[in-house]
């Protein structure tokens, strides 16, 4: 089986200017376990200098972060039609 890093390189994105995920980062400041950082397969959540940084551009649309965030700090939706993950080579 291919390693996950190699598989992720096969994913193509069509990035919408309008984010389909928003993180209310004020809730992140005292979130001790920060599960989103560990569960996102694309590594899109990062704590830098004590602040949450999130980028939606290479989101795999799996929904895991939304389920993992018990504080409900994540507003989640699929990208608009025609945007997001657009092509998967095998
Ligand atoms: S799990 Fe939720 S509250 Fe905690 S750091 Fe991630 S987005 Fe913020
Ligand atoms: S939906 Fe999946 S890939 Fe996208 S930000 Fe959440 S955990 Fe990461």
Automatic annotation (TrEMBL):
PROSITE patterns: 4FE4S_FER_1 (PS00198), 4FE4S_FER_2 (PS51379). Gene3D superfamilies: 3.30.70.20. Coiled coil: none annotated. GO terms for molecular function: iron ion binding; iron-sulfur cluster binding. It holds the Pfam family Fer4_10. Residues 19-47, 50-79 form the 4Fe-4S ferredoxin-type domain. Keywords: Electron transport, Iron, Iron-sulfur, Metal-binding, Transport. InterPro entries: 4Fe4S_Fe-S-bd, 4Fe4S_Fe_S_CS, Fd_FixX. PANTHER family: FERREDOXIN-LIKE, FERREDOXIN-LIKE PROTEIN YDIT. This is Ferredoxin. The lineage of its organism: Bacteria, Bacillati, Chloroflexota, Ktedonobacteria, Thermogemmatisporales.
């Amino acid at each position: 089986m291919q390693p996950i890093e190699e598989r992720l390189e096969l994913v193509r994105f069509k990035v919408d200017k309008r984010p389909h995920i928003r993180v209310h980062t004020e809730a992140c400041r005292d979130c001790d376990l920060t599960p989103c950082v560990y569960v996102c397969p694309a590594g899109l959540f990062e704590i830098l200098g004590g602040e949450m940084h999130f980028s939606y551009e290479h989101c795999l649309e799996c929904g895991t972060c939304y389920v993992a965030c018990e504080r409900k700090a994540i507003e989640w939706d699929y990208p608009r039609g025609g945007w997001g993950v657009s092509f998967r080579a095998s």
